[in-house]
Each structure stands twice: as structure tokens, then as C-alpha cells.
Amino acid sequence: MPIATVNPANGETLKTYEPMGEEELERRLQLAEATFRTYRTTSFADRARLLGKAADLLEEDQEEIGRVMTTEMGKPVKQARAEAAKCAKAMRWYAGNAERLLADEEPAEADVHDSGASRVRVRYRPLGPVLAVMPWNFPLWQVIRFAAPALMAGNVGLLKHASNVPQTALYLEDLFHRAGFPEGCFQTLLIGSGAVDDILRDERVKAATLTGSEPAGRAVAATSGEMIKKTVLELGGSDPYVVMPSADLDRAAEIAVTARVQNNGQSCIAAKRFIVHRDVYDAFAERFVAGMRALRLGDPLAEETEVGPLASEQGRKDLEELVDDARRSGAQVLCGGERPDGPGWYYPPTVLAGITREMRIHREEAFGPVATLYRADDLDEAVLIANDTPFGLSSNVWTRDESEVERFARDLEAGAVYVNGMTASHPAFPFGGVKRSGYGRELSGHGIREFCNITTVWQGA
């Protein structure tokens, strides 16, 4: 795949970039290693000042970088500006909380004495250069939720971004440079996916994080395992959205529309499978389909647009194949289901019902504005359907029954359970999944500690 900005609204190639050669990559790896030696000794106050400055600059650039993201991957420009604002918020959160999250821990006094020590501390120390392999769907947010905690912990970052968002990738390096971070603290590597393996094998790279597809995750995990390097993986998702009889149906249906189509439906944590109790299935389906049908599909740079094009021609083709397979196997198309005429990689908001386990869309992730509806006889069946997937990223539950809340929180196989609301990522809460959705956590104290050397400091009497 070439490193290029290709506008998904019309297929026009706007900019192309040559991949970095071996000499430039070597220079950058040397720089990362050298910078880490001194940057790791800086104070939390100094790091917080720099990260706060980067947040200020990002807010100032919100309009400009929002249009860049929209042009590169097609998200509605209002959502692109919101993404930039969310990144600034996360940067400030880590600037204000990292020192507390990484403070030395002291075990119980009885355990210290039992070990024969006068004092024991658990200290969090940075690992070194960390490679981040990041996707195009949230081209700022996915990077910042790695970069902000990593830099506050004293690590340095190497970014291999998706090849279709090179301008956003270069902007990120420039942002940290303008904020005053030492040269080498955060570098963008303009390389193809084929170059990742060699970088992972380089001894100067100490760990890796990847957000992306399952095959990409397997490849990074395999090499990192061979090299005995720490990894965090956030992979695909096919999140359930369960609606029980006690739910506020109007609100549940309204939020369901946003949960399925935000970012043009191209989100790992988007609700994708809508599992509705039989007592309220028809009422929910009517509201949900009406909401999906009413969405405005169009130019992502237009303020009124709610759903833009998919990021790539191949992405639309993959989505169409899932819908066509379901249709051939007996699924009912309640709205959408046909690509519109004209340029660009658009696909309409679509709802499918009558889904069976034999259909590909039941097993695979639909990465676009396509929802599947399931009818469940009771809570037990709802849980069975929800867990009948290789993924386990997040989940949504709508009920006013506290006993049902506890059952879902206990039994759903997912990294998060959102009750009466839409799954979202927040800097204060851990984010990540189970099963084939990956391992490890981003955000919160759990995320910042992923790339730390957890060191026991034992002192004798």
C-alpha cells in the first residue's frame, strides 16, 4: 500500500510520500535511544509542562488538523474537530495525574519487616523507545492515548502510522517538536508495514503497542514474543448492544444509531450486534431503523453531514461482501444495503435482521455503518448471543433492573460493560479487551504502567 493521502470522498490522490530509507531509519533509532538516556531523568513537572503546551497547540490547530483527518480518512469534519479536542483533554489529564499514578508504592509494614528489610518500595521506571503501530480510523486519538502516558512515564515514542494518513502522522511529530519536547522524544516513521518486523527486532526498541486488525496483531505479537518484548494489542471488536424490557426504548434507540455509525461505523468499539428482548424487539427495531434511515450521508467536509465515505475502496468492498453473504443466506435488509451512485467510497446506514450463525457477518467484524438485529427470548439467551463471537472488546446493556446489571457485568465476555449508555474511551478508565480483541490496557493508571519496569527496591536494616 503506498504512503499517500487519497481523499475517500472522491478517490483523488492528493499527496504521496517515499518511505524512509535504511539510513534515515537508523538515524532515528539512534536518536530515540540517545534521547531516552536523558529524557528518562526529567521531572514529572517538566514533562507535564511540555505535554500541556502540546495540548494548547492542538487546540489551536483543531480546525486545520480536523480538515486534514477528514480529507485523509473521511470522518465528518465535526467529529474530526471533536477528536482533536478529546486528545487535548487526555493530554492534560495525564499531565495532571501521571506523577500520582506512578508514585512509589510501599508494601504493608508487616510484610517489609517479615522480609528482613527496613524499607521496601515498588518503583515504576520507563522502558525506553516504544514502537506504536497505529490505525487510520481515529488517526489522532489512537496515537495520543499511547503517546501521552508514554511520554509522561519517561519513555520515547516511535510511530508507524497507517499508510493512508501520512499528513496526520507527520503533524503529530511536529506537534511534539513545537511543544518543546527534546528532539527524538516522538518520531514518525514513514514506512510500509513490511518494515515493522525489522524494527521490532532491533534491540533499541523495548516494547510495542498496536491497534489494528487481528492479522497485524498476530504478526507483531509473534515477533515481539520471539524477541521477549512487552506488547499491548487492541484489535477488532463486534460489540453487543443488549436491550431489555425495562429499558428506555426511545433513548436506547437514539443512542444505538450513534453507537453504530459514529466515525462512519469504522470503530472497534462501535456497537455492531443489537440483541433485543422479544417483548420490545418490534418497538426497538421500528425506532432504530427510522433513526438509521434518517441519517444524512454526504460530503464529510460539510457541517450537516452525519455519515461520510468509508476510508478505502477495499473497505467498502469488504463490507458489501458481508451484507451480500447475509442477504443470500436469508437476512432481511430493513434499510440501506446498496451502495449509492457517484464518486467516493460511500455506503449507506444499513440494518439487517434474521441473522443466523452460518452468516459471515455473525462471526466477522463489520467495519462500516451496518447493524445486525437479533431477537432474544430472555436474559440467558441474550448473554449467549452476546458472547457468541471471537471478539470481546466492549459491550452495551440497556436495563433498569439492577439484578440484570449484575448478571451482565458478571457474564459478558468483554473488557467493559456500559449500562444505559454508549461505549466510549476516557483517559481515567482502562480500555482494552479479551479473546481476539487483544490484551493489555490503554488509558488510566493501568495504561501508563504497561510500559514501565516495575522495580522492587529492597533496603536492609
Topology:
Layout: E1 3-7, E2 12-17, H1 22-39, H2 44-60, H3 62-73, H4 77-101, H5 109-114, E3 117-126, E4 129-133, H6 141-153, E5 156-160, H7 166-178, E6 186-188, H8 196-201, E7 207-211, H9 214-226, E8 230-234, E9 239-243, H10 249-261, E10 271-277, H11 281-293, H12 313-328, E11 332-335, E12 350-353, H13 360-363, E13 370-376, H14 379-387, E14 391-392, E15 396-398, H15 402-411, E16 418-419, E17 434-435, E18 438-439, H16 444-449, E19 452-460
Parallel strand pairs: 4-5, 4-7, 5-6, 7-8, 9-10, 9-15, 10-13, 12-13, 15-16
Antiparallel strand pairs: 1-2, 3-19, 8-18, 11-12, 14-17
Helix pairs in contact: 2-4, 2-6, 3-4, 3-7, 4-6, 10-11
Can you offer a commentary on this structure?
- It is a single chain.
- The chain has 461 residues and is α/β, with parallel strands linked by helices.
- Helices cover 42% and strands 20% of the residues.
- It has 16 helices and 19 strands.
- The strands form five sheets. Strands 11-12-13-10-9-15-16 form a seven-stranded mixed beta sheet, sandwiched between helices. A six-stranded mixed beta sheet has the order 6-5-4-7-8-18, sandwiched between helices.
- Helix 2 packs antiparallel against helix 6, helix 3 (62-73) packs antiparallel against helix 7 (166-178) and helix 10 crosses helix 11 (281-293).
- The chain is globular, with a radius of gyration of 23 Å.
